[in-house]
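Q: Got a minute? One more chain.
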Amino acid sequence: MAKNGADTPLMQQHNAIKQRYPDAILLFRVGDFYETFGEDAIRASQVLGITLTKRNNGSASSSELAGFPHHSLDTYLHKLVKAGYRVAICDQLEDPKQAKGIVKRGVTELVTPGVATHDKLLEHNSNNFLAAIHITEEKNGIAFADISTGEFFIAEGNAEYIDNLLQTLQPAEVIFQRSYQKTFRETYGKKFYTYSLESWIFDEDFSRETLLKHFGTHSLKGFGIEEMSFGIIAAGAVLHYLKDTEHPNLGHISSVQRINRDDYVWMDRFTIRNLELISSSSEQGHNLLKTMDHTVSPMGARLLRRWMLMPLLDPAKINERLNLVTDLIKNTQYRTQLITHIRQCGDVERLAAKIPSKKINPRELLQVAKGLQQIDQIKTEAAQQQNEYLLRLSENLNPCKTIREKILNGLVENPPALLSKGSVFASGIHSGLDEIREIASGGRQYLATLQQSEAERTGINSLKIGFNNVFGYYLEVSNGQKSKVPAEWTRKQTLANGERYITAELREYEEKITGADEKIAQIEAELYDQLLTELQDYIAALQVNANVIATLDCLAGFATLALQRNYHRPTIHTGDRLQLKASRHPVIEARLPPGEEYISNDIMLDREQQQIIVLTGPNMSGKSALLRQTAVITLMAHMGSYVSADAAEVPITDKIFTRVGASDNLSGGESTFMVEMNETASIVNNMSARSLILLDEIGRGTSTYDGISIAWSIVEYLHAAEQKPKTLFATHYHELNELENKLPRVKNFYITNKEIGNRIIFLRKLAPGGSTHSFGIHVARMAGMPPALIKRANEILSQLETKHVEENKGGAIEKIAAPQVQLSIFDSHSETFTHIRKLLEDIDINRLTPVEALMKLNEVKEMIK
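A: Always. Here it is, folded:
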């Protein structure tokens, strides 16, 4: 107990450690619990729902207290980090039984959203990147590291490119210079979890030295990043931050890759959002990634996400993928075998990442070896195939036979999840371990054998072996047979009916059996540590294996998808013609009810005859779906996948831009129209000759005639631009159909429909020509608008269509006759119809005379006047 209100030694130790981690919640190990104190305890109790109590050792050390059992760490750590907190884990660094005075403690790991290795903090199908941005007025550098996989990327560019990479790789945490907090928020928004560092960390010499020391090289030329000064600074900041958060074991980050902007199709964040590639505006969450994902391993799922957001630009590389997909489709038996092997590999990448810190458990270690068995099979079977790309990939596979056999032979068939549970290693691996196990498990048999042999040797028939806490094991002899006791036995206790003795052999056995479990645990721990130390040399090979397996998983998934959905191989070419035959939107098609067929469409765009398609048609007829499927099919082709069309000629497309729908950014203080214009400005300022541009309902965020003017001028601008980008322009302004007569490369198309009576049926089929009106009133009727309102809208429409607003100097609406009845927000006829229904129900038609029928009809007529 502390005197005079002073802190106890334990609290003094806690406070000293807490001072080094002021912005983190400190989980302080005390015995079998992790405790939190003060403000940390208040936050932890709120987030975790655990009890908040008071620790009272005098006024100075009176403090809030909240804790949980140490074995629940994963559960509670997950909740704290997901709530956005940094968490410092403070463990006991020595055995409390051996400690003199207070137990030594220290922070063994600082966990933040971007620095997580615990399984519950990670999504198996997506990376957990930590990003660092070096912000300057000239250029920005960025680096991404995932310590759960060992992947490390670096890039440079302007703010827009850095923003694109942030949207693509979606880091869990972003670090940058403390002096640029306002700049970061203004440029990249507030949706990232961020942490700012001192400016001295973002120094080129310091970063270069950090990287060279980490990789153990004399230069960075081997990684192809020697000249990327801004990116190197960001990469150095990443490594510094990882070590600063108590992650010194980074041997699995064995290389760094540069991301070249020119290697991938450019898509800005609007396009990624509008095409619903990895997220969806609907509650059901259907998106392209979910539709295309037929991978069977976590590594494949993570790689597929990256392929989707960073599609290839090199036609040779695209065709390599397509060729392998084609061969996998043809060879059903091989594809089935390959998928089976990949499924059984496990998450090689994340398991390898646990080796440097020695956090991989026995069960996971056995999975590494079993995965290597599958990789051996994949390598052997791939060598029998004819595909060049497959052969090249499989040559990089390393089954790591020596360490694989050592693990498989060393571990038991079903090891425990924790080393501390024991029984990890098989018999025959270590003679000392086998001996102690024999003693621990075969004790009774040993004692029975000893008792029998000693009784036979001495002739003492009543001899018994027993045990007590004072003497340990002993031999008990009755008084009648004391004379037969050998001289080498030592008497320890005299009883009323006999004597108790000990022997050298019993003493030796006792020494062996006492603490046998501890000795077993110690030997197993030494053997396990030795195995993990040897495995360190194989980390790079395991990572290469993981990358190859992920690639094969994605391509086998493409083959499965193509077969299931009847997709066809696209032709990738370097010309400019985009020609799609019987194209469908893959996500919408996948969600159709069984038996319902998707209405497919042909689309052609080029830079010579049909550069811009102005697409008109009824609302809800599928204009937006047609735009999206054109972009999505182009994207799928660049990924190396078959596409949702009967045939597709897809030109190499360097940029895909979309402006689909009007979405307010009111929280950011921008109107629908402002957002629309910002996004459209980004397109026209960044387009190229190989760009594909999709514009949907541009201008609808403002007044009708402003909207028509802007839409008209955008089409003219794109037509006149030197780049001549291929463009699909969907609009409800049928006035834009006039452009076909004025601009040679603009062509009108519309979504066909059929009118039956006063109803419309959408046929969802594309046809040349323009639509005369938008059918908005038909859609209003379908939505259930009151009949009187629909009738009035038709009256206004018919008068507007016969009179031009400008001819009436803005007075057309005023001159339209006012309706005879005022529309109410309630349906004024509802009550009347109820009376009529009741009147009709009460009539017995069989007894009604003609005169009575006429009178009833007149009564009904009076009701609805």
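A: Residues 17 and 106 are 7 Å apart (CA to CA).
Q: Perfect, thanks.
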